[in-house]
Design a protein that fits this description.
- It contains 6 helices and 8 strands; from the N terminus they run E-H-H-E-H-E-E-H-H-E-H-E-E-E.
- With 185 residues, the chain is α+β, with helices and mostly antiparallel strands.
- The protein has one domain: Chorismate lyase-like (Chorismate lyase, 3-Layer(aba) Sandwich).
- A hairpin with a 2-residue loop joins strand 3 and strand 4.
- The longest helix is centred in the first third of the chain and has 8 residues.
- It comes from Streptomonospora nanhaiensis.
- One of its GO terms (biological process) is negative regulation of DNA-templated transcription.
Length: 185
């Protein structure tokens, strides 16, 4: 496991402001606003069996094939996040959502080009121990991670995108705000 050379804290806004959500890269935009040198790399694009929580989110049977797009993110050279987009096969197969590389200009635009209109998104935040794979990639053996599962549903009530972001908990601050910008706590 790589040694983490320094302590890096990245802010993650919940909910994500629309201007950031619609940018080419949510992470690169957030990090740039914080003055952090950020990098990202596509790790995997292909079909894999749906884990139970992903299957529930996409309304498919557990273990059934889903299209996955997994990316890794670094801040100042330190691993901080793994993000995986999951799609039902009837939404992504045979489209550019299943192609290698980053989808430009945005994943959301590509989904809309397929005829899906977004109606809502729900985010579930969970703190948990990392899987061995996550612990190795993030360099967080013995630490916990924070998992954010965002499920976007179309106006036709089809869950068209499940985004699972796994963050090294010790390297993130989650800034909570109201979508309308009227923060009152």
């Amino acid at each position: 496991m790589p040694e983490v050379p320094q302590r890096v804290i990245v802010e993650r806004a919940l909910p994500t402001p629309p201007s950031v959500r619609g940018s080419t890269s949510l992470y690169l935009t957030e990090a740039g606003r914080q003055g952090i040198a950020a990098e990202r790399k596509m790790l995997f694009v292909g079909t894999e069996p749906a884990a139970e929580h992903v299957a529930a989110a996409l309304e498919v049977p557990p273990g059934s094939p889903v299209v996955a797009r997994r990316k890794m993110f670094w801040a100042e050279g330190v691993p901080v996040r793994i993000a995986t987009s999951f799609f039902r096969p009837d939404v992504a197969e045979g489209t550019r959502l299943a192609d290698e590389g980053f989808v430009l200009p945005t994943l959301q635009a590509a989904i809309e080009e397929l005829g899906h209109t977004f109606a809502r998104a729900d985010e579930t935040l969970t703190a948990r121990p990392p899987t061995p794979y996550e612990a190795d990639l993030l360099g967080v053996a013995g630490e916990w991670v924070v998992q954010i599962l965002r499920v976007s549903t179309s106006t036709a009530r089809i869950p068209v995108h499940a985004l699972e972001t796994v963050c090294a908990a010790s390297r993130h601050v989650f800034r909570i705000g109201q979508a309308a910008g009227n923060d009152r706590f």
